[in-house]
Amino acid sequence: MAVNAPDSPIQAEVIFVIEATSANSAYINELKTNYIVPTLEYFHGGALEEGVGSGSVYGIVTYLAADCHPGLPVSTYGPFTCPQTVVDTVDKLQFIGGHAESRACVTEALTTALACLEELGRSDIPLHVILICCSPPYSANAGGLVPPGAPATVEQAARLVGERGAQLSVAAAKKLPAFLALYENAGGELHAAQQRNYAKDPRHLVLLRGYSLKERPPSPAPPPAPDTQPDVYGQNRAAVPQPRVPPAPFPRAAVGQVRSNWLAPPRQPHYANSALLTQLAQPSNPPPPTQATMQRMSLAQAQAQAQAQAQAQAQVQAQVQAGPSSGVFAGGAQRTYIWSGLLEWMEKGKTPGDQQKVIKHLPCQVSANSKDIEPELKVDTWPSKLLMQLMPKHLISNIGGQYLKDSKSVLFHLQQNEALDALTKVMVNGFAGCVHFSPMSSPPQCDIKVLILLYTPDKKAYLGFIPNNQASFVDRLRKVIQQQKLNKQLPTPANPTPGQPATMTGI
Fold first, then answer.
1. Which of 466, 361, 450, 467 is nearest to 414 (CA)?
2. CA-to-CA separations, 126 to 12, 46, 122, 412, in angstroms, rounded
3. Cα-flanking dihedrals φ and ψ of residue 89, to 5°?
4. From CA 507, how far away is CA 492, in angstroms rounded?
5. Of 67, 294, 392, 434, which sits 20 to 30 A from 237 (CA to CA)?
6. At what angle do helices 83-92 and 37-44 cross, to 10 degrees?
7. Is 459 in a helix, a strand, or coil?
8. What is the pLDDT of residues 79-113, one digit of tens each?
9. Which H helix or E strand runs over 411?
10. Which residues contact 428 (CB under 8 A, 6 or more apart)?
């Protein structure tokens, strides 16, 4: 039995965030021996064995310094169910770059770690993010524009870790004030953590949260290293050639591009079907790249982007299986019309300055794969009119992957007219429909409260997703909308564009 390991294995999701700069190469062996391996033994419940797991899932996120640009600062590996595989992967990592930098891209790394946890989709077991590092973080996201939905500063990224329910621990080769602040911003009790000494070397900083390692007697420690390194990307940087690996973007827009070695998740049913998440993360109608952008883009980057887009489209096509005009048969799979009625939503008036809301109606039919009809959908309890609220897609994606995975899907067939043209124009500009199922006047009541309606330009089809846990989804959606209203981020300009959707709040 490993020292300080619990009597039985602990199921958890653990993401190791490892600085892969050449600076950390001097420390990685001792950090691995003293902190990574004991952490794996703690969750495994004992000594590590080849090919043996205990129910926990592990992943690795590595990150570089800003001098990696125009390469990608973050890479992912996993997920792994065997802890020994984590050790083997760490042994094979390349530690490169950072020669002209004194900080590293922690903001991007923490954001990517959260995306990995969300991709795994578990919310019923502890979530851990363990930072293994030696260089302080840049204060902000490195390299150009911050991807939509991503935290812009390291403080925001740390707070987001805590808000998502993950516990951040730090094992650093140097005692730097920046790491103390990072731990505290993520929700850690700094004073309590500093009362326990897990550091093998008095120069190390080890702050744990949610688990423990072997405690060591206090020893005289050197004063904290001064955190006076420049916080500007590329300051005093000489050109240092670095080996380039063709990038493969992690499939989440909020993360930006990362070099992905992230495999298909382990075979658990809760990891299946993320077509809804893929659609929410993809721009509905992305603008064409400018000539300057194309000139800057390497062939490898272009190929990787094309591959990622093809994979996203394939996921959606597998769900859609048919366009609006393809009848009840599509690609050999039989579809059946299960409902017909009216779809209603509201838009602003077409005259500039007109605040009058205009009610729009569209005759509509809904079809589904024959295997999905009864008893799951219970269409006999659907109302004759569905009320739709238009809202930015990013609001729905902010709800969280655990509420959106494994959604049932149906296809909406809308009557072609001027109202449909206006709706499509709104949808391709970043909006989604939250379709409400009004209560029936008499029992039985419909189990479905809301449905998410998205437009897929590649198939020219309207695809509806029905979240499984309706009560939790509605509650979470209400909180997201309330938070956005508090932050004044809802799109409610003083002089709305004519025909702009009127966002409703009656969730």
1. 361
2. 5, 18, 9, 39
3. -70, -40
4. 17
5. 294
6. 160
7. coil
8. 898 899 999 999 999 998 887 788 999 999 999 99
9. strand 408-414
10. 284, 285, 455, 457
